[in-house]
Amino acid sequence: MTDTITPSPVPVDLPEAAPDAAVAEPRALTPHVAISRVVILVNTLSGSVGPRAVAEVEAIMADYPCAAEIVELVGATMDAQIDQALASNPDVLFVLAGDGTARAAASRAGPKGPLVAPLPGGTMNMLPRALYGTGDWKLALREALENGSPQCVSGGMVEGQSFYCAGIFGSPALWAPAREAMRTGKLSLAWTYGRRALKRAFSGKIRVELDGGKVRRSEALALISPMISRAMDEPVGLEAAAMDPADAAQVFRLAANALFSDWRQDPSVVTRPARKIRIRARSRIPAVLDGEPTLLHHDTMVTFIPKAWQALAPDPRPQGEAV
Hints:
The N and C termini lie far apart (101 Å). Strand 1 (37-42), helix 1 (53-61) and strand 2 form a beta-alpha-beta unit. This protein has two domains: 37-147, 3-Layer(aba) Sandwich (Rossmann fold); 162-306, Tumour Suppressor Smad4 (Sandwich), CATH 2.60.200. The chain has eight helices and 16 strands. By secondary structure, the chain is α+β, with helices and mostly antiparallel strands. It is elongated. The chain has helices at 53-61, 78-87, 99-109, 126-132, 137-147, 176-183, 187-200, 248-260, and strands at 37-42, 67-72, 92-97, 115-120, 149-158, 161-163, 166-170, 206-210, 216-218, 220-224, 238-243, 269-274, 276-280, 285-289, 292-296, 299-313. The longest helix is centred in the middle third of the chain and has 14 residues, at 187-200. Helix 2 (78-87) packs parallel to helix 3. 26% of the residues lie in helices and 30% in strands. The strands form three sheets. A six-stranded antiparallel sheet has the order 6-5-16-13-8-9. It has a six-stranded antiparallel sheet with strand order 12-11-10-7-14-15, with no helix packed on it.
């Protein structure tokens, strides 16, 4: 009988287990306010947002140690979605949408609601630029998360509509769409808007009363919030700037001053703070509220709101792109 010899196993050098991949440390949240949960409303159809915004927001929020709920806004249910987001009591409500949606969310939140951070997702982005100094919503989102602190925002109210940067009243408000089309390089559209504005310009003046004072007839009135006013250090009212150019030449001079210097130095401009402003005209008054055009009643009242809502923004706010 032959013995069977079992060969000894040959030792094999196995490769060492690869070390765990390095896990990136989360980026630090702002030390100025506690943030554990945020809601981010995203309107992918808005001017500068785009269809990939939800995924881009998710990627950014993955860098921070807080819970984030991202809600894609739908036109028919947008108001209900804003109300639902506020009712969930987040530490911060971010709004990546147009100027009108940002204003709606801020006004609904009010001074006792959660902090609101309106990111630049619209066309003019007046409010986000004033708060964050940039038109890039990704930079604004990170700036708010890393350096933001509660900032009280004041503004104005007219016919149930709020504005927190500036309101322009009178026929020059009709130039706003032309100016924006020019800024974005849409020259043909700018020409169309410009011709439309020229037909209505200088057709009638508005009558303005500041805090019940003397009535002043003016071509236009700008009401500027303390947040962006260079003339006021404290929120004692809206900076009321009555503009009274006599003809087209003075309009272009005023526009040049607005672009290249302080337009308050133009001789056709008179400014002072005011808390209640009555505006009257023979017909409905064209206006632009934080970049959004509207038509108001021929006799209307603008009221200053010293504490409208709380923003999450750096303090001091960065001096970035011009508003």
